[in-house]
Design goal:
It is built from 13 helices and 38 strands. The chain has 673 residues and is α+β, with helices and mostly antiparallel strands. Among the domains are: 83 residues; 184 residues, Rossmann fold. An eight-stranded mixed β-sheet has the order 31-32-34-33-35-36-37-38, with helices on both faces. Strand 6 and strand 7 form a beta hairpin.
């Protein structure tokens, strides 16, 4: 009896606590501090990092730099200024942080003591800077800045930019591709790599000419790095004249004093993310094999600077290499890879090239190594919590959370972990999916289902906390959420990824429908008469394809999806992507463009559809969304369009994001109630 009473007393608070937890709301989502970019001090005792917060009322974001002991403890805020304060770098003295701030307008380099006090501005560059790194001896800053390549220096480029800005004529004249990228017009500018003395002084352009460094596409987490002796910089650049049809990024080296760059990779496909070994002997970088294919496996190449020999360290591993860091003794390399719905951490020793997985589950990114070799630091997130900084031993042991930026807010939320499941997809291949139950789930009830399809198409759903397509938000109104990684998804081997190219509406569509059938057969709490489907980018394409091939959903949400492959080719800035995925240009090889065109099946459209597109989306032009909406209206299908004149491929502004979530969830709710 005493045992029963004690159990009852212990149970009551947990029940009451569960009842006080509430489903995730937009204000909860936007209220999270977004933790990123951990940087370890030279003595290994401290970490500085960035916390970005969304300001809904001001309709913008602000970022500031914090410092905390590696052992854990109360963090201290180092910067408190408007705009972005990010990209922190430790000076060699271990007492000063250099960082990039937009507090006074254009982004410049500033420094601040870890003991606090006022920050000091180092640079005054009219165009602003990005991608700050510091030479190991602390004497040089390197960064990228956009300049006119025909100008002799940054100052004359700034004067030309000012004249263009003041001109009342806003017409644009361009004579070659690429003239716009992602959501910006190039306007004849190129991104160049500069260095400047850390004490301030004259800039030196290390990459003059009509090229971009870093490249406009397909780079790594950082595409330039100082050698350990601070005498040389390795950088990534695409040397081809028409980068719109080329993925030929190459690794070059150049002295910090300037000079003719030397190509060390000499590979017709994509090379990126150079990283010197601490002892200076090696330069590691990522390599793909197939020109024109962005989702080819990234392999880890070791270039021996002493003898000029290259070694492929991950040729036998069927996962693509992500972030790469060296151990301080130059004997081991660590990296991240997509891995069946997770981003795992691997390591390899240079001598025996033995590969080991040392951490899986969850999304583990922004990998850093302690300068003294005692631990690794990284961002870690899962579907139930946003990114925080974690630490672990180099062998994967003693995983420890360091920051708790969002812990109190998370405690108040009723969220559930995603549950993986496997089923037999097209051709008998095993395919993975994930199911998320709604808050306060009751297995005796029947729930509507929201079916999400990811973009890419070479991407993947996984155990992460997504701010634009947050699975907990889709579940928050009482729906079961299902996310499937069909053919084309990453993290399941290169063959699995390859099998969507030139087959966009084929095996991937079969995988998705077979996965949905499996869910309906296996989970009795799902109501098959109340289902919605939603997706963006390739997921948007798949929504458009579904419209023409099945009526099993009560409604559809199509965001920034391809509707007409012929027009999409002529308006995108990444021609190489469409040419790879559809087997060439639509002029020379129109067959697949026609075969996999959602527009060809408009006569079958019957499902109520919400169309979303942004004016500044240059990857998939806004005309794709307009064409889809016109087709729906012309066919008499219930439809609505949400148009953003100030957003690109992603919806980023806080108030726009709130409107997006409200409109999407209301549309789904109205049609699946």
């Amino acid at each position: 009896m005493k045992h029963f009473l004690l159990t009852a007393v212990l149970f009551i608070p947990s029940v009451l606590f569960a009842q006080t937890q509430h489903p995730l709301t937009f204000d909860d989502l936007i209220g999270f501090g977004r933790v990123s970019d951990p940087q370890i001090s030279p003595d290994g005792k401290w970490i500085v990092y960035v916390v970005t917060r969304q300001l809904k009322e001001e309709n913008k974001s602000t970022g500031n730099i914090f410092i905390t002991p590696v052992s854990g403890g109360e963090p201290k805020q180092l910067t408190n200024a408007p705009g972005s304060n990010a990209n922190p770098c430790w000076m060699p003295d271990g007492k000063t942080i250099a960082f990039v701030s937009s507090r006074d307008g254009e982004s410049q380099i500033w420094t601040i003591s870890i003991d606090g006090g006022e920050a000091k501005e180092v640079t005054h560059i009219a165009s602003g800077i990005s991608g700050l790194i510091l030479s190991p001896d602390g004497k040089w800053f390197a960064f990228s800045a956009d300049v006119y390549p025909d100008c002799k220096d940054e100052e004359s480029s700034a004067k030309k930019a000012e004249a263009v800005e003041k001109s009342k004529v806003k017409a644009k004249i361009f004579t070659h591709l690429t003239y716009r990228v992602w959501n910006d017009w190039k306007d004849g500018k190129r991104s160049h790599l500069f260095i400047v003395p850390s004490s301030g002084g004259k800039l030196l352009d290390l990459t003059p000419g009509d090229y971009d460094t870093p490249p406009i596409d397909l780079g790594g987490s950082c595409d330039y790095a100082f050698s350990p002796d601070s005498r040389e910089i390795a950088f990534t650049r695409n040397p081809d004249k028409m980068v719109a049809v080329s993925t030929n990024n190459e690794i070059y080296t150049v002295p910090v004093t300037g000079g003719e760059p030397k190509n060390i990779s000499e590979n017709p496909a994509n090379d990126s993310q150079p990283v010197y070994s601490p002892d200076g002997r090696y330069l590691a970088y990522r390599m793909t094999r197939r020109p024109g294919f962005e989702a080819d496996k990234h392999e880890l190449i070791l270039f021996d600077r002493k003898i000029g020999k290259k070694i492929n360290l991950t040729e036998t591993q069927d996962y693509s290499v992500g972030d790469v860091v060296w151990s301080p003794d130059s004997k081991t390399l660590y990296w991240t890879s997509d891995d069946k719905g997770s981003i795992s951490i691997f390591k390899v020793t240079v001598n025996d090239t033995k590969i080991l997985k040392i951490l899986d589950h969850g999304f583990n990114t922004a990998l850093r190594a302690d300068p003294n070799g005692r631990y690794l630091v990284f961002d870690r997130e899962q579907a139930t919590f946003p990114a925080e900084i974690f630490r672990m031993d180099p062998d994967g042991g003693n995983l420890t959370q360091i920051t708790s930026t969002n812990s109190e807010r998370i405690k108040s939320l009723a969220v559930n972990p995603i549950e993986p499941f496997w089923f037999e997809g097209a051709g008998g291949i095993k395919v993975e999916g994930f199911l998320l139950k709604p808050p306060h789930f009751d297995a005796a009830k029947k729930y509507p289902l929201t079916f999400l399809v990811h973009g890419g198409p070479q991407g993947a759903w996984g155990d992460d906390f997504h701010y634009r397509w947050n699975s907990e938000m889709f579940a928050s109104r009482g729906a079961v959420v299902v996310m499937i990684n069909p053919r084309g998804s990453t993290g399941y081997g290169q063959k699995f990824t390859d099998e969507i190219s030139r087959d966009w509406g084929g095996k991937a569509y079969e995988d998705l429908m077979m996965g949905l059938d499996y869910v309906l057969k296996t989970y009795t709490f799902v109501d098959s008469t109340r289902m919605a489907a939603a997706g963006a980018s390739y997921g948007g394409y798949m929504m458009n394809w579904i419209l023409g091939h099945t009526n099993r959903f009560k409604c559809i949400v199509s965001h920034d999806g391809m509707f007409n492959p012929f027009s999409a080719y002529g308006t995108t800035e990444e021609l190489w992507f469409n040419e790879w995925e559809f087997g060439g240009t639509p002029y020379d090889h129109p067959e697949l463009y026609a075969q996999w065109s959602p527009m060809a099946f408009v006569k079958n459209f019957k499902t109520p559809t919400l169309v979303i597109h942004g004016q500044l989306d240059y990857r998939l032009d806004v005309s794709e969304g307009f064409q889809l909406f016109t087709a729906l209206q012309r066919q008499g299908v219930e439809s609505k369009m949400l148009y953003f004149p100030d957003e690109g491929h992603f919806v980023l502004k806080p108030q726009n994001s709130e409107l997006w979530y409200t409109t999407v969830l209301d549309w789904i709710g109205e049609h699946t109630k």
